[in-house]
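Notebook, bench 3.
Goal today: get a predicted structure for Hemerythrin from Azospirillum picis so we can plan the truncation constructs. The sequence was checked against the plasmid map this morning, with no discrepancies at the termini. Length recorded as 139 residues. Pasting the sequence as submitted so the record is complete.
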Amino acid sequence: MEPIQWSRWMSVGNDALDEDHRVLIGIVNKLYDETNREDPVVIDLILDELIAYTRDHFAKEEAQMQRLNYPTFAAHKQLHDSLTRQVEDYRRTVRANRQRISGEEVFLFCSDWLGKHILKEDIRFGEYADGEAELATTG
């Protein structure tokens, strides 16, 4: 198990969204810290922080998608909503089963969730946004 490392491969080509992704990675990486992983109260607080920041980030990302008329906006928004519900459900599970769910499990779940979303879905949007910007400058 390793903390998430930001790499240029995660960049969506938008400084503000990339910075949000770095912050989200930082929040998830708090769960990598062994002291944090051993304290159910801290795990709960980190999940609260992750959910709050994710909602804010998703709202900004969705606004940009709408502004650029992203063709798969509705599907991406549904994915955002589903991912948020998934983490909220996981937080409920953690709260109900504090002694049976390890901090390591929470870290692995959150890092997998975040990594897949950035590397798959957000990169797609970044490529679209780059294409739109290029059209605007040449058109």
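Residues 103-138 form the longest helix (36 residues). The two ends are 47 Å apart (CA to CA).
Flagging this for group meeting.
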